[in-house]
Amino acid sequence: MSQPAHLVAGRRAEAIAEAYLVTQGLSLVTRNFRGKTGEIDLVMKAGTTLVFVEVRHRRGHGQGGGLASIDRGKRRKLIATARWYLLCRRLGDRTPCRFDVVIVSGNLAAPELSWLANAFDLNDV
């Protein structure tokens, strides 16, 4: 059974973002971590820092910015899911971590990428 087009495009955007971040020196820890409150697209490492990555795909600029779509409620869910990840992995609150946003715009065959490192942190709600 085939997946809906928006899910296929979302997974492709996540793969593009992952490949880009790897070229920037980050390493993949896990993809699509699901917790009670939501999902984190990518969990990566930058040195000793754990990086929770939210990937947004926008076909055009008319849909509004990808960063604007991460409102307070979405940040709250991402932070809660990240805390769950840390708890499940027994990493504790002292683990250095941050939240990055990667916006993949346009045609996925030749996308434009915007990377916002440290878009928010565990205390940003």
Please state the structural category. alpha+beta
Number of beta strands: 5
Based on CA atoms alone, the radius of gyration comes out at 14 Å
Outline, from the CA principal axes? globular
Query: What does the main sheet amount to?
Result: 5 strands, mixed
Indicate the mean pLDDT. 89
Strand content: 35-45%
Instruction: State the strand order across the main sheet.
Output: 1-2-3-4-5
Uncertain spans, ≥5 residues at pLDDT below 50?
none
SSE pattern, N- to C-terminal: HEEEHEE
User: How far from one another are the termini?
Assistant: 39 Å
How helix-rich are the residues, as a percent range? 25-40%
Tally of separate helices: 2
Question: Would you summarize the structure shown here?
Answer:
The chain has 125 residues and is an alpha+beta fold. The chain has two helices and five strands; from the N terminus they run H-E-E-E-H-E-E. The chain starts with a helix and ends in a 5-residue tail after the last strand.
Structure characterization notes:
This protein is α+β, with helices and mostly antiparallel strands. It is 29% helix and 37% strand. It contains two helices and five strands, in the order αβββαββ. The protein has helices at residues 5-23, 72-88; strands at 27-35, 38-46, 49-58, 97-105, 112-120. The chain has a five-stranded mixed β-sheet with strand order 1-2-3-4-5. Strand 4 and strand 5 (112-120) form a beta hairpin. The longest helix has 19 residues, at 5-23. The protein is globular. The model has no long low-confidence stretch (mean pLDDT 89).
